[in-house]
Amino acid sequence: MAVAVIGDEGSGKSIFITLMYATQIRYTAGSDGDFRFFASPKDLQVISKEYNRMRMGSWPSDELLGKDIRYSCGFRMKQSTLKRLFGSRQKHVEIEFRVLATSSSEFEPMKTGEIDDIANIPARAQEMIQEPIWLFLVEASRNDLKPWGRLVSNMIGHAPSKPQIIVMFTMTDKANTRGGIPKRLPLDRKVRNELGRSLINKRAGEVSRLWDRERVYGPEIFFSEVQTTDQKGKPVPKLDRNESGSFEMAYSYDQYQALLGHLGDIARVLDQNV
Amino acid sequence: MPAAILGDRACGKTTFLALLYSSQIKYSNDPENADRFKFFASPSTVNFMGDMYNHLKGGGWPDATAKGQRTKVDFLFGFRRFGAAMIPSWVENRGWANPYNTIKFSVYDVAGEDVNDLVRTPDGVMDDDIPEEIHELLESRVLVILVDTSRITAKPRSKPFMAMMDYDTKTATLISLIAEYNSKKTDPAQRTIYPVFVFTKFDVLMQKKKLLESMKLTETYPEMKEQEKRLHYAETLLRNFYGQTLALLRGGKLKNVSFDDSAYYFSEVGVEFNDDGIPIPSLHVMKDGAGHEITYSHPEYVGFIDHFRKIANKMPDDIKDAQEFNK
Question: What is the ipTM metric for this complex?
Answer without folding.
Answer: 0.84
